[in-house]
Every structure is written in structure tokens, then in C-alpha cells.
Amino acid sequence: MTIDNTPVELVTLTIDDIEVQVPKGTLIIRAAEQLGVQVPRFCDHPLLDPVAACRACLVEIEGQAKPQPSCAMTVAEGMKVRTQVSSVMADEAQKGVMEFLLINHPLDCPVCDKGGECPLQNQAMTNGRGESRFDGEKREFEKPINVSDRERCVSCARCTRFADQVAGDPMIALLERGSQQQVGISDDQPFDSYFSGNTIQICPVGALTSAKYRFRSRPFDLVSVPTTCEHCASGCSLRTDIRRGNVMRRLAWDDPQVNEEWNCDKGRFAFPYVQEGRLNQPLVRGEDGLLHPASWTEAIDVAAKGLAAASGATAVLAGGRHTVEDAYAISKFARAVLGTDDVDFRSRPHSTEETQFLSSVVAGSGLGVTYADLEKAAHVVLVAFEPEDESPMIQLRLRKAVRRGRTKVTAITSHVTSGNKKLNATVIATAAGHEVSALSELALDANTIILVGERAASVTGLLTAATKKAKESGAKLAWVPRRAGDRGAVDAGLLPGLLPNGNSLTDSSAREKAADIWNVENNTLPFAAGRDFGAIVHAAVNGELKALLITSVDVEDTQHSASTLQAIENTPFVVSLEIRPSSITELANVVLPVAVVTEKSGTFIDWEGRPRNFGQAIREHNKLTDGRVLAMIADAMDVLLGQQDVAQLRAELAQFAAPTNRVDAPSHGADVPNGLTLSTWNQLIDDGALQEGEPFLAATSRNVIAGLNSKTAAAHSIAEGDLIEISTSLGSITVEAIFVDGAENTVWLPTNSGESKVRTNLGAAHGNIVTIKRGGGQ
Amino acid sequence: MSRVPQIVRGFWVTFSTMFKKPNTENYPEQKDKYPPKPRFHGRHQLNRHPDGLEKCIGCELCAWACPADAILVEGADNTEEERFSPGERYGRVYQINYLRCIFCGLCIEVCPTRALTMTNEFELADQTRESLIFEKQDLLGPLMPNMVAAPHSMVEGTSERDYYQGKISRATDAQIAEVAARAGINANGQV
Amino acid sequence: MGLEEKLPTGVLLTTVELAAGYARKGSLWPASFGLACCAIEMMATGAGRYDLARFGMEVFRGSPRQADLMIVAGRVSQKMAPVLRQIYDQMAAPKWVLAMGACSSSGGMFNNYAIVQGVDHIVPVDIYLPGCPPRPEMLIDAILELHDKIQHTKLGVNREREIAALEKEALAATPLHLQKGLMR
């Protein structure tokens, strides 16, 4: 982290007769906090602009006739402030305001979800009168089905300011006037935001509550555990609330360096998968060809025998969901126990160019570009990266930077997206696959950050171009993966030819060091770099492999789902480490259940390269981590790896020093596709396996449409709203066409939403050539 | 007195006691003769509104107040099809572990709807731990005359507020018919 | 134990069961195990007002060899646990255990490291009695329920069958870690 050394101008003032020095521009309420004086507040929030809507924070300021809201006034030199601690006037004013706020607030605390953790409850006790003088009828509203208890609202405008200032989504606003003032949604604008859950968390009364958490629990029931979000590489700090071994809810935790106090709805609500439909017992395929529940000893024995028998023709397919420790355990197991280098975590379209880029630029590089850097940068270029869908915290941070007016965002993408609009981004509309030339033409300086997304892998030459551009201009470059475990997997060496922390397998000294740390003979480790995910699948389809170890892979993510399944079918022995039944576990010979993120401790490495440690939240389920399971298999294969608990793995990984002599990745020339190309990325809320079982969340996903330029559409005689068929040689998808403001000769589809299952139905990646035609009409 | 032998003095106490009225409360034979005082803290009861809807709103305040952590409550939403209490929320799960309970009565003091009260019943001994965790059906008070068992809708034309202001006196014919229809019994006659 | 264990089932064994049950319940001598406040109520139960002598139970034995029923009255600390078990082991069979009050039954409000969370972690408990502390009537009620249990205790072949049936039932029951609510 860089330390800002600019001198801060200080202002001296007295609060409650105590002299205090604070930076210029500080709000009185914050200055009072530094003295330990808690001025009551509802509308005040450190990350939102001051509005002084609730008037709960009134204080007396010498020289002013009337009490002033301390949350909206900045300090001035020599100011004399008296809070409720030393001023009767301020105290009376605060009590009066509290009485007014409570006039229309219903006395339904027992049925309100906020009860017990409610700022209004607390502050009515600390800064309110014991009794109300109001004896009239309280205001009542009809309760709409999905939104809120409007009569509880104290019109603090926190939710509306969040929607307006932070998320930039027009989801919620204050309507009407006077006592009828209420929070509402516009009739013609849908309540559609990826960040709506944050309004629930910042609501200081129970006006906005979560449909998911409704009446489920009370704060005193909950055991809160700090955790890290497992859904994307943003690395949000979360608070997971557990009641009797079940996750009740998840909240954003305050981490100023990463997610501030926000998170996205996926991280907040997509957790039912941790308890519903889990695999609880090992399964072994019997003589009859069916999977039968088995004891751990039996299952481990079968797995070990099968893998040992297939020695020399085994491969490991690891998904992108692993913690660093587990990824490292898999990496070690493949090299030291199976003796293969055929190991890859990229269960998505990828390329050799990407392997080389990740090995030489990303692996073991530690903390690189940070969120703070994004805020300070003058120019941020998004290349093949859609922050709102792929890393929502980057979206919020960029929006914060853009709102300050010092940062400008340029996006090289196929069309103007809603996320781009909120960033006020300059969109260089580029047909998918043509990004290289668009990037090369940009004039960049050293105060620029280039963010490259996961789909850059499927555009030949793009990663080379980005690296070159960054080197030429002095701009900083960051690779933003989509999944939480991707960056950690790179650091753990889950790539062919890559040892942990960026060491190369073909470097003999690094190999020796690895063999030493793993306590195995040097010659048991593979000598040559192995195959990547696609090549493994290809080899398996051709029947060249005798055994596969698959951990947390979803076939729907892989380039072409059918061929992945074919590969598994053609392999005689498959061991699957999974959390829930999937199409892969159905085909496996041995299925071993493993722990989900709440059931284990570990570390995710976010896109910055920042380790995000978390502890075990649920102890009751007695699930094993991937590392422990692999250690048991290794034991049964007579290779002793030790306990392989999280602490041991972490310590071992730390023994790998990052290489001092980094070799530049070989450069790849651009290979521009000739024809209409497919632009695609995963939407934030889609049909991903970890989002199952959450109807409230699924309801906030966006419509499944094909986006294309009107000229392209006209060339294929397609009108807006027509059903169009997008096809490759492997299959087709039929969805509604919507005109977007974007590049010609490209069509956009969400990767895994509703009917648009690009991997399953098209077997295509971003930038591949597809054909479109009108199909079916309206 | 000193001339009387010690042994006689000693037995005199025994002898004279023979003519005293015994103060033994012959429990359980004469149980009704010495009932506990009305303020005695016995087994709990979950009360009902006069029409049979449950008073418990599942707010968990009793569980919160409980010093022995003997109460488990889980709230849930009332729906139009299945209404257990007036208002939005009801106690879906209600359990008291009598092997933890210390009968201090803090739970009944905090209950905002007077749903939870204590009876004078104290004969609770049992042979297993499981059987001493009382669930909602064990704790719910008996159906008094003019009550019908939840779930059923509220008295027509009333709101939650009317229930708390004591404006409901009995189950209406419509409610009785509704419960009967639910149970699959003909509406005329007893429910 | 004795001859009665070897009797074949039928009218004879049933009659022996009745006689043995009647005799056992009629002179059930408690080993006092007063550990805390519950012991005060236990003493009161033995005194004239509640008069446990009416049930042939007036002799609270300090010596375990002479006792049939252990009334665990009060919270059992971890340190007391082995002592309690030893006393129980020294009692001659047939023997019964009554967990009196919340603390001995489940740890009660003392859910902490110092207190055994239910005396059934150490000895098999026949009757659990809630209350903090239970009033003497409650103790008498529990004792009467225990009497009932003793009266219907089976012997010999019948007992073996009963054990087999209970075992089968226990195997079919939901394991504790899968139960919901307070049983967890």
C-alpha cells in the first residue's frame, strides 16, 4: 500500500469544552466521534453525501441562534460546539426531533426484523424521551408486496442516496411530501439493481428488510463470523450470520481497502447452495454400474487404487472456486503424487497465450494495482472486461472515482452497457475479436490503469497487446479474473508448467526446491510442461487418459459442455471432489464430498493480489477440505504428505519464493476473425451453480436478450424484438433481439442465462464466428 | 423437674407428639387440599385470542430474555391461506426445554402480546430428555368455548389492532365454517 | 442376577415380576446426593410436612451399598463427576438414578465449562425432574413415576426381549446431530 504523504491542513475547534484538531473539511459529527461523543444520527453515513434529512444530530454552536445539524456542517477554525453532553439546548432539540420521528413510527418492534439491531430503537433509548405526547392516529400505508414497510420510514434518504450516488441505479426514491413522504419506486423504471441489498443494510429503521431473511432470526441468535465472498474476484469482506449451523444471512463488512461497506446482491444472497442439496457421503460406483454410498475408508481406498493403477496417464481438472490452500494442495497432489503436469484450473475458454501471460505476469506477483490506485488513476481502460457483471466492487470504486471528476473511463467492448453508462465511460465500440487494434490505437500515459478481463483469453494477441501497451506507456496492467479462486489458483501453480508462486517447472533449481519442500524424490516430479484444460479434454475424448481427478468443475463453464462430458465418459476412472451432485459426479467412479467456503478456513486472493483470509464459520457439518481429502488419498497411495490442514498448506506455500528472473511471455500476433462474431460474458446474476435455490435473487437477474447493432440487424433483415437464431456448427440459441448502441458485425449474448447457454448450445467463446438469422418472428 | 429421670423427659416429647395433629400434606392423595398459590411459576401456556387465533407472534423476545437459553422460537409469515395469528408474523416453531428452564418468569414478563403465561401445573417429571422439550402443540392452551383452532382467517372486517383492543369476543360462524371445511367435516354441529 | 433371571417366560415369570416390583418400590432407599439448592428441597421432602416415609423412603443413606436410588440434587461440577460415578458404581443393583432439577438434568442455566451438562453424561438416568429447584411435591411426583417404572420392570427373558426392542428402536431413531430445534 502506498502512503499518502501530502500534509493535511488542520482546524482547531472546541467540542464540549475540549479542544480538538481535525483535518479541514471534517464534519462536526466526525470530529465529535474522535472525542468519543456519539451524536445520534440516521441519515448520516460516511460514504454518502451529507443531506441533513433526519435532523437527529442537532448540536449547539456558539453564535448560532438555533441548533444546527452536525452531520452536514464542516468544522471551522475556533468553532465552539456543544453536543447533548454539555448543552441542554442540544439535548432538548435531539429529544424533540426523536419524538417527532417516532410520531409516525409504528410500535411493531416485536414483528420487525430490525428489532434488536435497530439504530432507531437504540437511539430512542439513549437520546429520546421516555414518553410520547402524541395521542393521534399513526400514519399507515398499504403494504406493497415486494418493497418495504413504508410507515416505518424516517425519511433519512440513505437508500435513495445510495441508489443515486453509489450504485447509480434508479431504483428507489422519496415520493410525496410532508407526513405522506414515503420511499417508493417509479412505475416505469424497474426495481433492478445488482446492489439493492445494501439499502437493506444501511436502512437505520426496519423500513427496508430482506425478503430472504424475513422473520428468520434475531441478532442474539446469530453467531457472526467474518468471511470472504466466494462469488467473484472482488474479494469482498463479508459477515456471515449463522444460527444453529445454518447460514441465515450475509452482510457486507467494512473494509475500506476493498469493498468499503458495500457488496453485490450475489454475494449477499447467493448462499442457499451451502446447505441445500449437498453431497454428504462418499459415493463409489459398484459392480452394477451405479453409485452407492460408501464409507470414507472404502471410497479413499478405491480412489487411491484407481489413480495408482492409471499412473502415467492421469490428469487433473481443477475449477476456479478453490481457496489458495486447496488449489495448492491440488497442484502438489498432481505433481508429487500423480506425477503429472496435466493440471489446469481454467474450466472456461482459454489459450496458450493466456497460460504464458499468467505464468510470467500474474503468478506470484503479489499485490499489484489496488482499489485505491483505481480511485487515484486519471484514466482507466477496460479491455474485454465488464466490471458491473464480472467484478461489481470495481464498478462501484470506479463510479466513486468518476463522480469525483478526476478519473475517466474508457471501455473497449462490443456495445454500451448499463455499467458503462453509470461510469460515464467513453466506449470504443469494437466487434468481439477486434480488440487488439482498438487497444493499440489508444494513446495512454503513465497515470493509466489497464484492466483486462477473463474473456481476453479468447482473443488472440490481446494479452500480448495489453502487456506491450502497458510497457510502452508506463501504464499499470491488472488482470481481473471472474471467479474468486482464479488468482489464487495461478499463485498455487494450477497451470501446466507452473509451480507455486510463479516458479517454472522447467527451471531445474525451482523443481529441486519444490521436490525438497514436498519431500519427494526429484525425479518423481514431471519434467516437461503438461497439457492445458482444452488439451486434457481433447486427450480424454480420444481415450488417451486412464484417470481424471476433477475438483469443482461445472461443465456449463467449459468451452463446449458436451465434449467435456464426453471426455469424462471416455476416461475409465474418474474421481470427483464436489460439494453438490452435478453432471460430473453422475459420471464419476468415486465421488468425495468436500467442504464449502463456510465450512472451512482459507484464503482467497482477489484481483489485486491481496490475500483475503477467512475462518471457519460452520463447524457442525464435519466436512473435509480438498486438501485433507487429497492427503488421505495420498496416504493410501503410500505418499505421505502430512495432515494437509489449512495452516500447514499455507506455511508450505509460503516457502516457495517468487522467481527473481522472470521471462517475458512470448508475444502472439493478432488473429482477427473475419465475419460476424459473438461477444459474450457471464452476467453477475445468472444460472451459475452457486446461485441455485435463491428465487429472490434470480428475480433480479436481467432479461435474456441478444444485443446487436441496428445496421448489423438490418443487414440480416432483423427488426427489434424479433426472435433470432444464433448458431455455430455445434448448435444454436434462439432469443429476442434488442438493438444496442455498439459495433457492427457482432452480436452479444449472456454466457449462462436462461435460454442463452453459450457453452452448452454453441460451444463458442467470446470472439468466435457465429451466424445469425431471423427465426420465428415476434 | 430434675428429679424426673432423663429418659422420661426425653420420651415425653415423643409421647406428647402422638396427640398433635400431623401437618403432613398428603400429596398426592390430597393434592387439591393444598394447591400451589396462584402466583406459582409452573408450566407455560401459549394463549389464544378469543376466536382461537394464536397470540404468539414469533418475536423471540422470550428466547431473548431467557437466562437459561431454554426457549427456541422461529417466526414465519402468515399467509392468506394459512393464518395462525393476527398480523404478519407468527411463531412457526416454539419449543421450551424444561430441563433448562428455571421457571424464573422473565419470558412471560417480556411477552408483548401476553401470549406466554405460566400455569400452576408442576407435575412434569419424565423419563427422557426429548420428552421434556415441549413443542408448540404441547404448550398451546386448550380451546375454550367459542374458539376454533388456527389456522383460520381473522374475523371479517377486523384488523390486527381490533384483536389487541379486545374487540373480538368469539369465533364467528364464518370462521367455524372455515375450520370445519379445512378439516373436511360438515359445517353443521360440533367442530 | 438371581434365580428369577433364569425363569422361563409365562405366568410364573409375570407373577415374580409383580412381586419383585412391589417389593423393590416399597422400600426404595435413596442415596442422598445433595449438591446444591435442590438438596434443601430434597431435605424438606424427607421432613414431616411432605413425609417421604409414607412411601417407605425415609432412610436417606450416606452409604451407597445400602441405597437403591441416587437422587442427584444440584449441579454436578466436572470435579464431582468421577466421585458421583464412583458412588453409583458402589451401589448394589438393582439401582436407579433420579436427576433432580434443571442443573443435574441438563446443566440448566449453567451452560459453561465447569458444569456437567446433564448427569446422564456420567450415569444412566431413569427420571428427569425439571424445576429450579423443584418443590417437594414435584420430587414426590417424580418418585411416584419412578415407582411405576420399577413396578413394571421386566425380568429374565422378558427383559432381554425388551432390551432387544429398545435397541432396535434406538437404531432407527434420528441421530441427535440430525435433529432440529432444541435437541441439537
Please describe the structure with a list of short key phrases separated by commas or semicolons.
heterotrimer; A: 778 residues; alpha/beta; Ubiquitin-like (UB roll); N-terminal domain of TfIIb; Rossmann fold; 5 domains; seven-stranded mixed sheet; six-stranded mixed sheet; 25 helices; 32 strands; 28% helix; B: 191 residues; alpha+beta; Alpha-Beta Plaits; three-stranded antiparallel sheet; two-stranded antiparallel sheet; 6 helices; 22% helix
SSE arrangement of chain B, N to C? HEHEEHEEHHH
- Total helical elements of chain A: 25
Classification by helices and strands of chain A: alpha/beta
Distance between the termini of chain A: 55 Å
Q: Structural class of the secondary structure composition of chain B? A: alpha+beta
Shape of chain B: elongated
List the helices and strands and how they pair.
The complex is a heterotrimer of chains A (778), B (191) and C (184).
Chain A: E1 10-15, E2 18-23, H1 28-34, E3 58-61, E4 68-69, E5 80-82, H2 88-103, H3 119-127, H4 158-167, E6 173-175, E7 182-184, H5 197-202, E8 223-228, E9 237-243, E10 246-252, H6 265-269, E11 283-285, E12 291-293, H7 296-309, E13 314-318, H8 324-338, E14 343-344, H9 352-362, H10 371-376, E15 379-383, H11 387-390, H12 392-404, E16 408-413, H13 418-422, E17 426-429, H14 435-441, E18 448-453, H15 462-473, E19 476-480, H16 486-492, H17 508-518, H18 533-541, E20 547-551, H19 561-570, E21 573-578, H20 583-587, E22 590-593, E23 602-605, E24 611-614, H21 626-636, H22 646-654, E25 677-681, H23 695-698, E26 705-708, H24 710-715, E27 723-728, E28 731-739, E29 746-750, E30 752-753, E31 756-757, H25 758-762, E32 771-777
Parallel strand pairs in A: 1-5, 13-14, 13-20, 15-16, 15-18, 16-17, 18-19, 20-21, 21-22, 25-29, 26-28
Antiparallel strand pairs in A: 1-2, 3-4, 3-5, 6-7, 8-9, 9-10, 11-12, 11-22, 23-24, 26-29, 27-28, 27-32, 30-31
Helix pairs in contact in A: 7-21, 8-16, 8-21, 8-22, 14-15, 18-19
Chain B: H1 6-17, E1 44-46, H2 61-65, E2 71-77, E3 89-97, H3 106-110, E4 116-118, E5 133-134, H4 136-139, H5 160-164, H6 173-183
Antiparallel strand pairs in B: 1-4, 2-3, 3-5
Chain C: H1 11-26, E1 30-34, H2 38-46, E2 69-73, H3 81-90, E3 96-100, H4 101-106, E4 127-129, H5 136-151, H6 156-172
Parallel strand pairs in C: 1-2, 2-3, 3-4
Helix pairs in contact in C: 1-5, 2-5
